Task: inverse folding
């Protein structure tokens, strides 16, 4: 019999939790007490710059109504809220005479709420669409909000660039595009690494705040007759993105793969749902082949409404299927160690004739005696040049492969000459291709080629509606492929919901006013927002 009656120790809060919660409460009181609002005297660059310089992390800089033209970049590193008087009230015109002049360059950290709200950013003909952007946000903030702004006919390559390891939400904005895309997003420094390597070495985080959310925005493009790059979104470098509840007219969703950017990696994860995407065939755009274009990683795509001159919901592609000099990664060939290859050598020999007839080319080995169609879907590597081609079909002595190459302007007729050696191999999977996920960590500027043992991580599409104005054979509300190495039932599933998937509550928690917090770990685990 116990002499004393007491509450079991396992029912008491652990002492570390008590101390932690006390610290957070005290930290929030201190922040709330010390946060200040600095008001710029007007909208001029000098006035706003001076106000930002006076602000400490946690402060708010208020910019009044008015209109000014800026010719210099507002650069700052403090975690603040930069708040204008509203769309059409606080108007900043991009007057930079150089195509590399930004309006804002903001390097964040993860100690405070970061917010940009209440501005119109207006473009002029002084700037042109290059590789630059108007608003650049980088760093490690896990509580960024960009909201209730209008990006009006800006003519840099992207209205907004978000890079580094930034989470949060971009919501309730208007993008009126002219000469560039709405935004480009990358998570290249995820986990403290580079090039998106950390993101590719980490597990998925579906339906959590560990992504950049892009929601409740309006996208318009009625200016540019060549809108291929005038998208609502472009992404790369291990980006983890959620694109939801947006309305888009003549603006599409694109991505970059582990190829065209040099050392950079592909997009990592995308959640795309509850969007309305419209393509207006009554203008000068004509029809477009897809609403979404995924060149790597995995995606969850559901409940989107696609209407107008759009032929397909989403296309999956890997540009490394083409024979180009991808400096770091090389192209898919069956002998490239970055990929998962079958060690079996199916055939080898030397080329005796070449026929480069667009769009189908052929290579002949007159001494061969192959079984017709035996090599369909395998790869033939030119052992002299180290490049490979996917085999479309074969006869007893001839291999056929596509001669179409978008990197060479359509044709690419220079990869085979008589007497070149060849070898035929099978490719199981390519690094970072659509339908691949978490793998071994890759580091360094020039890593040694080695398959990173990536896990299967299929793309799932379901419940989407596509209505074409001009019905044709290409109309489909499912995923389609540009490379046969992306396999249905393994790399993507049409009309199948992602197992055990639950989306994050809408709207994003940061859309309400947040309390102060001391970092992303505490933010995700403990703190809540009003």
Result:
């Amino acid at each position: 019999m116990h002499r004393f009656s007491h509450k079991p120790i396992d029912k008491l809060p652990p002492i570390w939790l008590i101390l932690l919660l006390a610290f957070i409460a005290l930290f929030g009181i201190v922040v709330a007490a010390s946060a200040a609002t600095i008001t710029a005297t007007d909208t001029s660059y000098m006035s706003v710059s001076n106000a930002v310089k006076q602000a400490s992390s946690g402060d708010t800089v208020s910019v009044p109504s008015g209109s000014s033209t800026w010719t210099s970049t507002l650069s700052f590193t403090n975690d603040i809220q930069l708040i204008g008087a509203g769309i059409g009230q606080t108007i900043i015109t991009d007057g930079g005479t150089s195509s590399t002049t930004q309006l804002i360059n903001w390097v964040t950290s993860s100690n405070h709420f970061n917010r940009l709200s209440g501005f119109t950013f207006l473009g002029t003909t002084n700037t042109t669409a290059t590789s630059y952007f108007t608003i650049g946000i980088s760093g490690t903030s896990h509580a960024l909000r960009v909201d209730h702004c209008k990006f009006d006919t800006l003519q840099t390559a992207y209205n907004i660039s978000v890079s580094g390891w930034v989470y949060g939400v971009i919501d309730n904005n208007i993008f009126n595009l002219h000469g560039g895309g709405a935004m480009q997003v990358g998570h290249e420094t995820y986990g403290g690494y580079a090039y998106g390597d950390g993101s590719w070495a980490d597990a998925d985080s579906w339906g959590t705040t560990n992504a950049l959310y892009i929601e409740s925005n309006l996208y318009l493009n009625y200016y540019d007759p060549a809108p291929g790059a005038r998208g609502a979104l472009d992404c790369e470098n291990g980006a983890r993105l959620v694109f939801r509840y947006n309305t888009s007219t003549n603006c599409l969703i694109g991505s970059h793969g582990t190829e065209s950017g040099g050392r950079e990696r592909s997009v990592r994860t995308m959640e795309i749902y509850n969007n309305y995407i419209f393509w207006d065939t009554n203008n000068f755009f004509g029809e477009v082949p897809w609403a979404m274009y995924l060149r790597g990683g995995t995606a969850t795509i559901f409940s989107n409404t696609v209407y107008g001159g759009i032929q397909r919901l989403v296309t999956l592609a890997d540009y490394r299927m083409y024979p180009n000099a991808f400096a770091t990664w090389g192209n898919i060939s069956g002998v490239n160690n970055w990929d998962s290859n079958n060690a079996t050598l199916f055939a080898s020999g030397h080329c005796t004739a070449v026929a480069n007839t667009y769009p189908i080319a052929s290579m002949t080995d007159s001494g061969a005696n192959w079984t017709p169609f035996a090599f369909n879907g395998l790869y033939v590597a030119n052992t002299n040049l180290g490049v490979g081609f996917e085999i479309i079909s074969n006869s007893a002595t001839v291999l056929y492969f596509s001669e179409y190459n978008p990197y060479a302007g359509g044709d690419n007729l220079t990869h085979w000459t008589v007497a070149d050696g060849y070898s035929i191999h099978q490719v199981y999977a390519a690094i970072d291709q659509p339908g691949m996920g978490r793998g071994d960590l890759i580091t360094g500027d020039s890593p040694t080629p080695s398959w990173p043992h990536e896990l299967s991580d299929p793309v799932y599409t379901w419940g989407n509606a596509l209505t074409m104005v001009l019905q044709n054979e290409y109309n489909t509300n499912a995923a389609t492929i540009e490379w046969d190495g992306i396999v249905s039932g393994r790399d993507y599933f049409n009309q199948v919901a992602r197992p055990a998937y639950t989306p994050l509550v809408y709207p994003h928690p940061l859309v309400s006013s947040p309390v102060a917090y001391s970092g992303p770990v505490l933010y995700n685990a403990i703190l809540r927002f009003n």
